[in-house]
Design a protein that fits this description.
One of its GO terms (molecular function) is carboxypeptidase activity. With about 400 residues, the chain is α+β, with helices and mostly antiparallel strands. It has 14 helices and 15 strands.
């Protein structure tokens, strides 16, 4: 959720500035200590990867979960703090909200249903959607499932400044996918179906409704039963139940080093049912494992690997800071880095931020989830230079 490319980044900055007027810190649970180690203890690249961890802290990050999966093995670390007030250190077993990285799981579920012959991504989405939504949402009666996946549907964004303000003043608390979609009933589409691309979280809420209809169960339940558990992924959560391992979340509103607790806002924003635009929770270790399996053909049939690696150029203006984001396929972004292409997704809720990327040339996967944000942190974390830490001595 809320990774609206350039528009979303600007919107988030405006909203966070308003947060102080509407919310106060509410600490109602202690994040428990998680004593654990993941990955190999003596990874040959450990000192290089530790430099990335140190760089994140130097930018002001409160806490982060970082995993790098390479041909030499897996390196995983907790960085900083999971709970500032109670001085609980982050470990690889703590979990964080992954924001729009959830879209990878949503897209994979849709493609799995296609693999099983239960839907076709070239069909109109209206074939599988409840009539209430095809009638109420402009373009929902015309867009194909594939156009929802690659953001060419023209369907309007539900996550607006008005929506976020309602989260802050508690008018919206843990709305479901259906409830959030009803907020755009009667609104005009952004453009005719297929005419261009424009990132919209609404597309993936509609996809979650399709998963629910075709899979005959809640979309979260479908992902858990058919994607996570069969692949041995135990610490990625598609659920409205918050795991006890979840870190708290923080935002530095003025880039002055003062972090405000935003945990309750995060939970209200994406805590509802089937919020597959950005509601999932994970540690970086299991997130990296899943993404590596997806990118190397271990989850979907070979037929769909070509689709995942076939990117449409991004024509939406992303600004200079995201100029390295060059393509979008079926729930995946393509970056051009100093070390070749990387495939995955960025994600933002309010303060939690996630990313997972696979470098096919080097067969390296990096998953980074952080519990704190500011303009300074975001600029560093979303730069292509952050990936240099993976490869430079």
């Amino acid at each position: 959720m809320r990774y609206n490319m350039k528009k979303g980044l600007l919107k988030t900055g405006i909203v966070i500035s308003i947060v102080l007027c509407f919310s106060c810190t509410k600490i109602d649970y202690l994040v428990p200590t998680q004593a654990c180690e993941k990955g190999i203890p003596n990874h040959p690249n450990a000192s290089r990867y530790q430099k990335l961890a140190d760089a994140l802290l130097s930018q002001g990050v409160v806490g982060a979960s970082l995993t790098i999966l390479s041909p030499e093995g897996i390196w995983s670390a907790g960085i900083g703090m999971a709970d500032l007030q109670n001085k609980v250190s982050m470990t690889p077993c703590h979990t964080l909200r992954i924001g729009s990285v959830s879209k990878i799981f949503c897209a994979t579920a849709i493609l799995k249903l296609h693999d099983e012959g239960k839907l076709n991504i070239n069909d109109k989405a209206s074939k599988y959607l409840p009539q209430e939504f095809t009638k109420g949402i402009a373009n929902a009666d015309q867009a194909t499932i594939k156009q929802l996946l690659n953001h060419t549907s023209g369907i309007v964004e539900y996550s607006t400044i008005s929506n976020i303000l309602q989260i802050l003043n508690l008018s919206i608390v843990k709305h479901s996918a259906e409830e959030n979609l009803r907020s755009i009933f009667g609104k005009k589409a952004n453009f005719n179906v297929g005419k261009k691309d424009e990132y919209s979280n609404s597309n993936f809420l509609l996809l979650s409704l399709i998963i629910k209809a075709v899979g005959k169960m809640e979309a979260y339940e479908y992902i858990t039963k058919n994607l996570l558990l069969p692949n041995g992924i135990t610490d990625v959560y598609a659920s409205t139940i918050i795991p006890t391992s979840l870190s708290r979340a923080y935002y530095d509103n003025y880039d002055n080093g003062i972090m405000m607790d935003r945990t309750e806002i995060e939970n209200n924003a994406v805590g509802g049912s089937d919020m597959l635009d950005g509601g999932m929770i994970a540690n970086s270790y299991d997130l990296a494992l899943f993404h590596e399996k997806l990118m190397t053909g271990k989850i979907l049939s070979e037929n769909f690997m070509a689709e995942l690696y076939s990117f449409n150029p991004v024509t939406q203006d992303l600004g200079d800071e995201l100029s390295h984001l060059k393509g979008y396929s079926l729930g995946l972004m393509k970056l051009e880095t100093n070390y070749g292409i990387a495939i995955g997704h960025y994600g933002t809720v309010q303060s939690f931020n996630g990313m997972v990327y696979y470098f096919p040339q080097q067969q390296v996967t990096m998953a980074l989830i952080r519990n704190a944000d500011s303009a300074k942190i975001k600029k560093f974390a979303e730069s292509k230079e952050i990936f240099d830490f993976l490869f430079e001595e």
